[in-house]
Design a protein that fits this description.
Elements: E1 2-7, E2 10-12, E3 18-26, E4 28-39, E5 46-51, E6 57-59, E7 67-72, E8 77-82, E9 91-101, E10 106-110, E11 114-118
Parallel strand pairs: 2-11
Antiparallel strand pairs: 1-3, 3-8, 4-5, 4-9, 5-6, 7-8, 9-10, 9-11
């Protein structure tokens, strides 16, 4: 089994910063793409940023220039540095990981979600 544990959410004022982390553990052989999504109640979950094993990144237009996704392959961890936060960034943030488990079966996992609230 594989577990994803997210941390780093919270309440921040507009213009502030937060750093989210998502650590994967368990029966992991290797991790391919990692990503962050977010969801507001009543709306579809949307893709925020992705990063390949080779650290190629993509971003949603709404966060380009403000958010940075990164990863530490040795720690099986993905990060999301969020700067210049806006009220519209308020959402539950989820990490998503595509990996090969120790049985060499490709699997997809979601984190439990962490609340980010941007408000004065």
């Amino acid at each position: 089994q594989v577990q994803l544990v997210e941390s780093g959410g919270g309440l921040v004022q507009p213009g502030g910063s937060l750093r989210l982390s998502c650590a994967a553990s368990g029966s992991i052989f290797s991790i391919d793409d990692m990503a962050w999504y977010r969801q507001v109640p009543g709306e579809e979950r949307e893709l925020v940023a992705t990063i390949t094993r080779g650290s190629t990144t993509t971003y949603a237009d709404a966060v380009k220039g403000r958010f940075t996704i990164s990863r530490d392959n040795a720690k099986n961890t993905v990060y999301l540095q969020m700067n210049s936060l806006k009220s519209e960034d308020t959402a539950v943030y989820y990490c998503n990981v595509h990996l090969w488990n120790t049985r060499i079966v490709r699997q997809n996992y979601w984190g439990q979600g962490t609340q980010v609230t941007v408000s004065s």
